[in-house]
Structures
1.
Amino acid sequence: MSGFHKEKLASLIRDEISLLITRELDVDGALVTVTDVELSPAGESALIGVSVIPSSKKAAVLAALESHRRDFQRHLIKRLKMRHVPFIRFCLDEGPSAAAAVEKHFLNK
């Protein structure tokens, strides 16, 4: 898979998953943001990084994402109209919450 094609596919997946999270996922007051989509070299799988604020909701959000993974996968198949859509997996991106904690620490001084 060429570099341009991988970047374009990753961007499309990020946009679609972001929309689905907003529309379909009940996250009980948590802010969930898709931060990154990394495709495997051959494009058969995609690791989707998400940040969750507040951090106390991370486990619940990750569980909800995993329980909706098949629905998200089916949506991608229909929406992207590709023969082989990458198998999606979710992981927590700790970067934004770590940055928020540092910012909170310095603002409280």
2.
Amino acid sequence: MKKIASYFQESYKELIFKVTWPSWKELQGSAILVMISSLIIAIVVALMDLGFKNVMSAIYSIFS
């Protein structure tokens, strides 16, 4: 049981003294970057889906 308590004490000390937390401005910049990246990836996936749909429609129209 002492090992578990020691583990949590060491983890707490590390979070308080050794971890460098981002500032509010850095956090906002990262959040904006993630939102823009997600939007770009969503657009790329949508375009790929549309292209695949058109290719498959063309293939189905040839064989039917």
